What does this fold into?
Amino acid sequence: GSMHMYTKTLFGGNGIVGAQVPVGAGIAFAHTYKENGKVCISLYGDGAANQGQIFEAFNLAALFKAPCLFTCENNHYGMGTSDVRAAANPNYYTRGDAVPGIKMDGMNVLAVRAFTKSVTDWMRAGNGPVVAEVETYRYYGHSMSDPGTSYRTRDEVQEVRKTKDPITQLKSFILEGELATAAEIKDLETECRQVVDEGVEFARASPELEVHEMFNTIYTDMDGVRIRGQTLLPTGYTLLRAWDI
It folds into this structure.
């Protein structure tokens, strides 16, 4: 998932629950220091919201007026425990103390867009950080080992799908606003399914990677780089030596 994806503006996730939040505060402080007009959006879930380091990040960001949008994606169940059972105060947007907070419907695409623009403009004006609680929902379990039905009912899941699904809502907005016809939306859905199917087929048909690929692209330039537990190959690739681990 996003934990393993990095770009020039996406700093990935973290194997430690909630650890990306103080990283986000640091990135936001860098924007303040450089006076570049940029902001940082640091995402975490309701399951991570009780981590102490998150409150430290709030405090430091407030002190330095770092433009960080601390965004709690509240799907209400963390890994499998209801938010009202895990938190004495499940109103996560109120937890910023000196940092202003706001709660919004994360299942409404247009609301999320308008909210993000408004808040980021406010932060760029030098007003400091904001804590946002984005109320959402997940249909499936937290992981493959979680059926997602031991702590909630199937009826609850289906009710959310039926009444609050963000894609279904957006489709309704488009049709009501006459921005596209039902046939055009159907064609788009067919095209999207085709792209996904092609990607899945490509992955299934691709050969399994060789061992040395485990260490490829760890650094931007691998030539001449030595990593403990490996032998550098003439090609610039590396080969794991199990006995060195």
The first strand starts at residue 40 and ends at 45.
